[in-house]
Every structure is written in C-alpha cells, then in structure tokens.
Amino acid sequence: MKILVCISNVPDTTSKINFTDGDTKFDTNGVQFVINPNDEFGLTRAMWFKEKQGATVHIATVGGPSVEPTMRKALAIGADEAFRINAEPTDGFYVAQQLAEVVKNGGYDLVIGGRESIDYNGGMVPGILASLSNMNFINSCINLEIDGNNVTAVREIDGGKEKLSSSLPLVVGGQKGLVEESDLRIPNMRGIMMARKKPLSVLEPVDGLKATEDKKFDKPAAKGQVKLADSVDQLIDLLHNEAKVI
Amino acid sequence: MSVLVYTESEKGKFKKNALEVASYASAVAKMMGTTVTAVAFNSTDNELLGDYGVSKVLNVKDESLATFNAGAYAASITQAVKSTDAKVVILSSSTDTKYLAPLLAAKLSAGYAPNVVQAPESTSPFMVKRTAFSNKGFAHTQIDTDIKIIGVSNNAFGAHESKTEITIEEISATSDENMNNTKSVEIDKVVGKATIADADIVVSAGRGLKGPENWGMIEELADILGAATACSKPVSDLGWRPHGEHVGQTGKPVASNLYIAIGISGAIQHLAGVSASKTKVVINNDPEAPFFKAADYGIVGDAFEVVPQLIEKLKVFKAQNG
Ligand SMILES: Cc1cc2nc3c(=O)[nH]c(=O)nc-3n(C[C@H](O)[C@H](O)[C@H](O)COP(=O)(O)OP(=O)(O)OC[C@H]3O[C@@H](n4cnc5c(N)ncnc54)[C@H](O)[C@@H]3O)c2cc1C
Ligand SMILES: Nc1ncnc2c1ncn2[C@@H]1O[C@H](COP(=O)(O)O)[C@@H](O)[C@H]1O
Which UniProt keywords apply (chain A) (predicted)? Predict the structure, then answer.
C-alpha cells in the first residue's frame, strides 16, 4: 500500500496571533511552526500501516522553503520520502489542486490529511483533493482499518459516531482518534539523522484556480473584566437578569 | 439566479441550524435582490422554512437517503445548484455539512469560505468575515469564483423570522457514480441529549474534577440546564470522558450561548476552541486560573462545594421560572 500524508505547517498551538503589513498578513515573528496536530495523528496512523502492513509513506506540503523543517520532522517520525510544492498555500482549492497532481503522479492508495488545519481552518483540502482525484472520502475520521481494498472507518458525527465501509483509493480527513495522544512519537536522534538523508523533492506548482483570498485580518475585541459572584444565588441572578442566558 | 441553502433535517424535522442558515440565506438574497431556494432531504415540515424567508423548497424524496451520505447528498445539492442557476450556496457548520462542503466546492469549482460569522460585508466583490486561527482571529475573505459557498458558524447569525410565500417541490435524488462511495454501517448516537454542536448551554469540566467518578454532578447540572456535557483535552486523553466531548482548538469548537467551565485552567488551546461562546462562566478554586481573564462571570471556590449548591439552587430557580 502506498500512502501519502498531507502535512500542513502551522503555528504551534500556544502561539499568540498577530497580523502585519496593515493587517493583511499573519505575523510569523517569534512563532514556532509545527506539523498540524490533526496531520500528526494521521502521520502516526500511517506509521502503523507501515510497520504492520508494509506500507510506504510519503508526505507532501504546499509551501515555500520555510516549511522544510516541519517536513523533516515528519521524515524523522518515519515517513520515507517528501514532496514540497513550491507555492504559497493561500487558498484551499489551489492547495488541493497541487496535491492532486502529486497524487496523480504517485499512484497512492490512501491519502491522509487532517480534518482542518488550525491556522486558516479551511477544512476543505482533503475533500476537494478526493473529488479532484476521484477517490473516496471520509472526513473527521477517528478510526481507520484497511484489509486489502476494503476500508472500515469510524467518523465523528454531532452527538456520536458513525461506522462506515468504503474502498481504496481513499482520502481521509483525520483527527485525534486515528491514534491516541499517547501514541504520538517524538523524533529520536537516529530518526533525525536519518531524516536528513531522506529524499525531499521540490516540485513547481501547476496552474490552478485561486478561489478565495484573505484580504484582511483582525482580532476579537478585548474582553471586559470578569464579574466574580460571592454566592451561587448571585451567579444565578446575574445569568438570569443580566446575561439573560438562563 | 437565486440563493440556495441546504437545510438539514433529522427524522424529517429541520434542525435548529436549518433555520439559522435559512435566515442567513434570506439576508444574502435581500442584498442581491433575489430569492431563496432550499434543498432538503426527506423533510416533512417544509412550510416552516417560509417563516424564515425561503420561497421555494426542493425536497429530495428518497428512502435510500434516510441517513446522511456525503457523496449522495453532495450530488443532489450540486444538481439543485445547477437547476436553479444559484450563484451563492449557504451551508451550516455541522459535522455532516463540513463533510460534504468540500465535495460540493470541487464539483462546482466554487470558492468555499467556512466559519462565517456575519452577513457578507459586500456581494461585489463578495466578502465575508470568518473566524481563523481557531477563533484567535478573523479573516475577511473575498470569494472570486462564479459560484460561492458559505459555511455559516453555529449560533453566530441566529434565526430571524420573515414570512414568505413558499412553494414545495418534491424532486428525486441525483446520483453521481464518481462521487464518494461510502456506506453507513452503524450509527452510535446519544438520543434525547443536547449535543455540543447544537446546545444553547454547554457544561464542561476539567482535570480539577480529580476523576471520572465525579462526573455525576456535572451530568446532573447539565440535565437541569438542558445542556450538553464537554471536557478539556486531558480529561478525554485520560479516558475519563469520551473523545467526542473534548473541546478546544484540537477538539470540537463550542459556540453556545452559555459555557460553564468547572475545574478547567483555561489554557490557550482550550480558550481558542470555546471563545465563540457568548457568555462564559468559570468555577475554579484558584483565583489566578487564566480562565478568569477570559470569562464573563466566575466563582472562586471548590467545585465539590459550588456545583452541588448550584444544582440545588437551580432546581428551585427552574421550578419558579419554568
Ligand atoms: C498541541 C496541543 C493541543 C491542545 N489542545 C487542547 C484542546 O483542544 N483542548 C483543551 O482543553 N486542551 C488542549 N491542550 C491542553 C492544554 O494545554 C491544557 O493542558 C489543558 O487544557 C488543561 O486541562 P485542564 O484545565 O482540565 O487541567 P489543568 O490545567 O490541570 O487545570 C485544572 C484546573 O482545575 C482547578 N481545580 C483543581 N481542583 C479544583 C477544585 N476542587 N475545584 C475547582 N477547581 C479546581 C485548578 O485550579 C486548575 O485551574 C492542548 C495542548 C497541546 C500541547
Ligand atoms: N499547504 C498544505 N500542504 C499540504 N497539505 C495541506 C496544506 N494545507 C492543508 N493541507 C491538508 O489539508 C488538511 C486540512 O486543511 P485545511 O483545509 O487548510 O483546513 C490539513 O490537515 C492537511 O492535511
């Protein structure tokens, strides 16, 4: 089985978010970039398929040279080979088209992406990619088993979960549950050394549709002071008469 | 050229978010001087949409679509967009809709803006405001394609009545063999309980509760308020609560009217996921807990004392206020 994991390079979850250039760009100053958490769960599941079912695991990221340290980390975790598509990932549709080209040329059976990236929160790349590549698609995937061509998966639904059957070739939008938090791996020294030698090819982008543009950013208004209640009675009164939420 | 909205139903009845997206679609249609057509699947209370500005319902009647199927639903919605020559498609932010939206975007070569929090800032160019960076910021996104898809955030725009003459047409499903072959095997869903996505009130607890055996009072509090229960990430990682309850930046987003956080410190990743909630209440025994800086109301106190009191007082309050 040939697997492609789509890795998006995102600000660490603890990052303070600021904007620059007249609020038209995300300010990367002092920000640490990491593998998108949803993708890390997917990558770790891919490692399981590699170790238990002999799969080959490639990764792909659409981005400029600055994303390479994050890609090397994915290689250090155990991916075999990497592709960087040299373009700014400003629009989900465009990103999906670039990845579709990698999928077409690579003949992958399974493509694992994340339910959403935690930066622009598009939640669209895996689904668009599946559709452009004529592959089946399961989103918010929290369990994935593959036996030959047959797929059994569980996805999260509002208020519960749904078990699905499908077949390869397949794209999943994954999240925690694909593996547990405790299964995540911190790259060790040997992995990091090996990752330096693994192939990371840079591909030029194909022409694509840029469907959306983020023109401007801003931040939520600062929060007022918290009102501390001295008693439960006072809290109920505030919630009823002031906030009018109960 | 109308505005098309996909209105979700469950067992034939429209979900709360269907009325929100219908209201949103109606606002967009007014801006563009056109009308709203809704697509629904096997719904039985179609007239209701007329109260929220919808003038036509295309109701897909098909037994095989009794449960949601992303590919099949997307195929029928695509067909409805084409037959009505719609230029704007309005969707909700439910898990199901977020599953089908990208399939629809690809089929229609449409730009898709998810998590939109208000009516478009302009329709030419088409600009919407949406949350980004897990609620730590907003993006003003321009959609440049001929057909535009908007995902409206839960509980952001609200449902607004506006009576409209409505016609209902039953249509048959459109199938598309290239569209996503997956089959539902089994659905495991809590019935009769509010879900984090839909609930007006969410009661959430963290590691301060010490262990899973102490969740009885959290559930009781939620019951009295008709609320959904949620938890912080470590609580689900420790297996104290199911993963589906984990809220925050890497879990489910919460956009309820009231969010009550009990024994949760208020780490940045937690706050990011719950900040879209309108009123936030914190119960924590540490006055320095970061959550107090992000909350509207709070009680500094021991959860094991405060919560049982709150339960007793709320019972009395509910008895008096219905
Ligand atoms: C990549 C990444 C992603 C993450 N994503 C998320 C996410 O999506 N959601 C999330 O929640 N976290 C997330 N986290 C974890 C986050 O950083 C915090 O560790 C977590 O939110 C803390 O959970 P907690 O508040 O329940 O526990 P703690 O931080 O241990 O806080 C417990 C709180 O309970 C209070 N307390 C103790 N006893 C009592 C008592 N008797 N009565 C009242 N209060 C009491 C304490 O004062 C304390 O404030 C993420 C972390 C990382 C690294
Ligand atoms: N620039 C990118 N390069 C590679 N994969 C990406 C990129 N952006 C998004 N993805 C994948 O698509 C998923 C969803 O991202 P998004 O649609 O941006 O929310 C991510 O979790 C990744 O798996």
Answer: Electron transport, Transport
Here the CATH number for the domain that contains residue B251 is: 3.40.50.1220
Phi/psi at A64 (nearest 5 deg)?
A: -75, 180
B311 reaches A (C-beta below 8 A): no
Q: How far apart are CA A25 and CA A19, in angstroms?
A: 5
Interface predicted TM-score (ipTM)? 0.96
* A70 Cβ below 6 A of ligand 2: no
Q: Does domain A2-218 have CATH number 3.40.50.620?
A: yes
Number of independent structural domains in chain B: 2
Question: Is the pLDDT confidence value at A108 over 90?
Answer: yes
Phi, psi at B267, each rounded to 5°: -65, 155
Mutate to test the interface with A, among B182, B193, B221 (most CBs of A within 10 A): B182
Ligand 1: centre distance to CA B268 (Å): 9
Whether the model clears a pTM of 0.95, i.e. scores above it, the answer is yes
Q: What is the spatial distance between Cα B16 and Cα B71, in angstroms, rounded to a whole number?
A: 23
Does position A184 have pLDDT exceeding 80, yes or no? yes
In angstroms, how far is CA A55 from the centroid of its own chain?
20
Give the structural domain span for B121.
3-172
Q: pLDDT tens digit string along A29-58?
A: 999 999 999 999 999 999 999 999 999 999
Q: Which residue numbers in chain B have pLDDT < 50?
A: none
The 10s digit of each residue's pLDDT in A140-151 is 999 999 999 999
State how far the Cα of A216 lies from the Cα of B146, in Å rounded to an integer: 21
Instruction: Please provide residue B77's backbone torsions phi and psi, each rounded to the nearest 5 degrees.
Output: -70, -40
Nearest to B99 among A140, A219, A238 (CB): A140
A160-167 and B182-189 strand pairing: antiparallel
Convert the pLDDT of each residue in B192-227 to its tens digit: 788 999 999 999 999 999 999 999 999 999 999 999
Name residue B46's amino acid. Answer: N
Residue list for the binding site of B for FAD:
207, 263-270, 284
